[in-house]
């Protein structure tokens, strides 16, 4: 049986930044038994309007909530920017490109975007910023740029967004456990590592079966439907 942990997030999602230490612990502990795969969600993909004061206040409130709940640090100098367009598609596409070119550094690259956006007050919507992060991971600038600007990368990024919608995933971070073709959500939204560890321990040990749980839920649903009641 093939196992995989599917992590659905956005590199410019504050709750995903809050979840970052948890994600790293999960990969460190379980990555050899169930490899992690990143799917990007496109939280604010293709936004075109500059952030106004109301939008900034709303986003700042989210950051403060995440900081309080997770202990992750934030640099609020971001909100002094004028005319910033919060479009997360470029950061998502850059992650998809690195996933294709050098998958072994994807999670490190993804976290670089997190840190750039939330701590270093860099513009993670700009190609130059993303090029620098790719180079820091050992990817040649020209190779990254050609892939980033390709139609294939744009299509693959849209495919990630579409997979999220088709799977009913509307919030980030979401973590899904896969056994062969069977999927089940481990968490929708932030959870501390301690809340997930026992479930993951049971799952990788084979004591907890996603397939069996899904089959049981489907059977219970069918038994309770009007067509099957007697």
Short recap of the structure:
The chain has helices at 14-30, 53-70, 89-101, 106-118, 127-136, 141-148, 151-166, 193-205, 210-223, and strands at residues 3-9, 36-40, 174-179, 182-188. By secondary structure, the chain is an alpha+beta fold. A four-stranded mixed sheet has the order 2-1-3-4, sandwiched between helices.
3D structure, described in words:
With 230 residues, this protein is of the alpha+beta class. It has nine helices and four strands; from the N terminus they run βαβααααααββαα. Strands 2-1-3-4 form a four-stranded mixed beta sheet, sandwiched between helices. It has a single domain (3-223), classed as Glutaredoxin (3-Layer(aba) Sandwich), CATH 3.40.30.10. It has helices at residues 14-30, 53-70, 89-101, 106-118, 127-136, 141-148, 151-166, 193-205, 210-223, and strands at residues 3-9, 36-40, 174-179, 182-188. Mean pLDDT is 94; it is low at 225-230. Helix 1 (14-30) packs parallel to helix 2, helix 1 runs parallel beside helix 8 and helix 3 runs antiparallel to helix 4.
Question: What would you call the shape?
Answer: globular
CATH class: Alpha Beta
Distance between the termini: 37 Å
Within the largest sheet, what's the order of strands? 2-1-3-4
Structural class: alpha+beta
């Amino acid at each position: 049986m093939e196992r995989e942990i599917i992590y659905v997030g956005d590199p410019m999602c504050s709750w995903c930044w809050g979840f970052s230490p948890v994600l790293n612990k999960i990969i460190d502990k379980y990555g050899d038994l169930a490899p992690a795969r990143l799917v990007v969600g496109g939280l604010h993909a293709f936004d075109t309007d500059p952030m106004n004061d109301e939008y900034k206040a709303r986003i700042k409130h989210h950051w403060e909530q995440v900081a309080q709940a997770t202990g992750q640090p934030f640099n609020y100098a971001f909100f002094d920017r004028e005319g910033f367009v919060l479009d997360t598609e470029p950061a998502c596409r850059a992650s998809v490109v690195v996933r294709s070119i050098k998958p072994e550094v994807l999670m490190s690259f993804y976290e670089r975007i997190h840190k750039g956006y939330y701590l270093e007050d860099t513009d993670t919507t700009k190609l130059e910023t993303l090029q620098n992060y790719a180079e820091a991971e050992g990817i040649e600038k020209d190779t990254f740029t050609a892939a980033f600007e390709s139609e294939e990368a744009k299509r693959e990024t849209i495919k990630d967004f579409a997979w999220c919608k088709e799977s009913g995933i509307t919030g980030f971070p979401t973590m899904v456990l896969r056994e062969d073709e069977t999927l089940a959500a481990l968490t929708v939204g932030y959870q501390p590592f301690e809340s997930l560890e026992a479930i993951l321990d049971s799952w990788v040990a084979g004591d907890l079966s996603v397939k069996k749980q899904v089959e049981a839920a489907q059977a219970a649903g069918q038994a309770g439907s009007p067509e099957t009641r007697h």
